[in-house]
Design a protein that fits this description.
heterodimer; A: mainly alpha; elongated; B: 11 strands; about 30% helix
């Protein structure tokens, strides 16, 4: 009898440890969202590099378990908590920026530097969301962390939210990456709504070819200019320009290749997976998260709108023949190269010979710099 | 003259070493103490016991290994902090917690006395002190009345915001803060002050956008003129490399092996593209010309020594 009762107790204890015994409706909802992300990434090919790791991370983070066994991402000493340190301490985002720098060709920006200002205009998305968040009752620090979603830059959003509002980081990161994946869906209707048929057919002069020396000078001067004015942006901007120098110097090809490929892939995997896993139902399914998603969408809309309207306004002062196609205004958000690709697609839709991609790349990469500067400013004020 | 120099140098060395030593001592303080611990932090054995916090408020790393802590004014060497534990090396701003459970065998941070000992009282007061490695120089001390101590209420040194003072005032902390800052500043944080002055975020928006525009405008101006300079004075090598290959080279050189295929592939791709015959692709394509991009590190001819030739 004693033997059987011991077995029965053991089985009961085992069952109490299983996910089935500990599942809540929140876990089921988050697992469903995770599966949706994985589906969108694989079947629809919407930013699979981001949505697949984040979606699968959501599954990992929402498997129900009994607390106290150092399993969960928020439990001290668990393996996941160590992997998550890169997000909490903010060292994954600068590594991602190193890779972005090593991958990005800034020649479009160097050869037509005036288009850089479009990248500045689109940063209104960040501050539009900041104002909206303060009106909705978020603290200034939380509002700053939410606003950065409008920068359309996942690593920057994670970096800033880990400093200003760590408890909202999961929602902010997922929101930022989700909307980056949805850039084509969000931006196209706004671009079409705000432009006339004539404007969409504006053909821009081809940019000049820039020299290797200019490309080498760019990251050095860019670093000095931006970080002397906003030192708080140093972790992101420093790594971005360093990565770019590795690429353009021509003598560190192996380092550039590693930064742009292997290192970037490793950090993307860790970042995506842990950000996804950080969305545990208990911390993620709150009314604040829903508001953050709403504000994130608003920030993308504002960023796209201000980018396009800024170009239209600028065109009022430009002579015929020098005018800028407002369809590249959306590219000021720093979702590289998706936003520029949207400009190209919409442009080609109206004129099959109008290639806007390289023109759009200038505000697009300027947006990366602009959002990092904006993040540095917010960190300086609110950190 | 040489003698004077030697004496001067020796005096300077002595002066500096005294200064360093003095600075190290003055940077360590007893930061917080909880006598009756019922519900605050537990030690690494899961037990609640009285604790005290030592804090490095200076700007350099200090090793308190070999120093002494005591609750007996007549025995400054009561508990010697083990010397070879890396956890006793305190970085600037670092705190370390000592558990006063009388069980020094449990580890470096378990001292051999408790904070409730009554055999070392000074009048009605209990005593806690930290001494340097000689056991003679008092680094910091604290007197407290055992009878008036309450459970889970600690004593801590209260600093002004951004300013740490060894002789800061001791205050009662209803919420103990082991290994954390003792008293949060009663003043507003920077973010709160901004929230009060700019409740709708308009000022911060204008300020930040102005800065973003200025920075990107500067980038734009710098590279506008850099571009102009390079267009006018750019070295020929650069232009030759990046603008276009010289015409005679193309005409004179017949297409090398494989180049015809490239041209045909590009022509076919363009034809398909303009006639909507192309497949929908997530990315573009490029033709790798297979240039040797190896650096010296991976170049076998640079790594391996050539076999000696026998004559």
């Amino acid at each position: 009898m004693g033997f059987l009762s011991t077995i029965s107790e053991n089985i009961q204890q085992f069952l109490s440890f299983t996910g089935f015994a500990n599942a809540t409706s929140g876990h089921i909802i988050m697992i469903a969202i995770g599966l949706l992300f994985v589906y969108l990434g694989i079947a629809k090919k919407w930013e699979p590099m981001l949505l697949v790791p984040i979606g699968f991370g959501m599954l990992i983070g929402n498997i129900p378990f009994m607390p106290g066994f150092q399993i969960g991402i928020y439990e001290d000493g668990s393996v996941l908590s160590y992997l998550y340190l890169g997000v909490v301490k903010g060292f994954y985002p600068p590594l991602i920026f190193l890779g972005i720098g090593a991958m990005t060709d800034f020649s479009a920006l160097i050869s037509n530097p005036k288009l850089v200002l479009i990248g500045a205009a689109a940063q209104f998305g960040i501050f539009g969301a900041y104002i909206a968040a303060t009106l909705l009752g978020f603290t200034p620090a939380e509002a700053g962390a939410i606003g950065i979603i409008g920068g359309a830059d996942g690593p920057t959003a994670i970096f800033l939210s880990s400093k200003l509002a760590p408890d909202l980081m999961g929602a902010i990161a997922v929101s930022a990456y989700s909307y980056m994946a949805l850039v084509p869906v969000i931006q196209q209707p706004i671009m079409k709504l705000l432009t006339t048929d004539k404007e969409r057919r504006i053909k821009m002069k081809p940019a000049r070819t820039c020299t290797q020396t200019e490309k080498i000078i760019f990251p050095i001067v860019g670093l000095l200019l931006t970080t002397f004015l906003v030192p708080s942006g140093l972790p992101l901007l420093g790594m971005l320009f360093f990565g770019n120098l590795l690429k353009e110097s021509g003598v560190t090809r192996r380092l550039a290749n590693t930064a742009a490929n292997s290192l970037m892939d490793i950090v993307t995997i860790l970042l995506g997976l842990t950000v996804g896993a950080s969305t545990q139902a208990t911390t993620f399914l709150t009314s604040k998260s829903i508001l953050i998603f709403g504000l994130g969408a608003a920030s993308f809309v504002i960023a796209t709108t201000t980018g396009v309207l800024f170009v239209k306004f600028w065109n009022l002062f430009l002579k015929e023949g020098n005018k800028i196609n407002p369809l590249i205004g959306n590219a000021g958000v720093s979702a590289v190269p998706d936003a520029a690709r949207v400009s190209q697609e919409v442009g080609l839709h109206y004129d099959k010979t109008n290639y806007l991609l390289m023109h759009a790349m200038a505000p697009n990469v300027a947006g990366v710099i602009g959002s990092a500067v904006a993040a540095g400013m917010l960190l300086g004020f609110l950190g | 003259m040489a003698k004077k120099k030697v004496i001067f140098i020796l005096l300077m060395v002595l002066f500096c070493s005294y200064g360093i030593r003095a600075q190290g001592l003055s940077d360590i303080r007893i930061n917080e103490i909880l006598v009756y611990n019922e519900n605050t932090c537990v030690d690494n054995y899961g037990e609640h016991c009285g604790w005290f916090e030592i804090y490095n408020l200076g700007n350099r790393t200090i090793n308190i290994g070999g120093w002494f802590v005591t609750n007996d004014i007549n025995n400054s060497r009561k508990y010697r902090i083990p010397k070879n534990d890396p956890n006793t090396i305190l970085s600037p701003g670092e705190r370390v917690l000592f558990y006063a459970d009388g069980e020094s065998s449990r580890g470096t941070f378990h001292v051999n006395f408790t904070l409730t000992d009554t055999d070392c009282l000074i009048g009605d007061s209990s005593y806690l002190a930290i001494y340097d490695q000689s056991g003679k120089v008092l680094v910091d001390s604290f007197l407290y009345s055992l009878s008036s101590e309450k459970a889970d209420v600690s004593w801590g040194k209260k600093d002004d915001e951004g300013w740490k003072d060894k002789n800061a005032e001791w205050v009662i902390l209803p919420e103990p803060t082991p290994q954390a800052e003792n008293v949060k500043s009663s003043g507003e944080t920077r973010a709160e002050a901004i929230g009060r002055k700019d409740p709708y975020g308009l000022i911060i928006t204008l300020t930040c956008m102005a800065v973003v525009f200025i920075i990107l405008f500067l980038v734009s101006v710098v590279f506008k003129y850099t571009g102009k300079y390079f267009q006018q004075h750019g070295n020929k090598k650069d232009v030759k490399e990046t603008v276009k290959p010289s015409k005679p080279e193309v005409e004179a050189k017949p297409a090398a092996g494989g180049q015809e295929e490239e041209i045909a592939a590009i022509a076919m791709a363009l034809h398909m593209y303009f006639n909507d015959m192309h497949e929908v692709e997530a990315t573009g394509f490029c033709l790798n010309r297979g240039l040797n991009q190896h650096s010296a590190w991976e170049n076998k001819s640079m790594i391996f020594r050539k076999s000696p030739i026998q004559k």
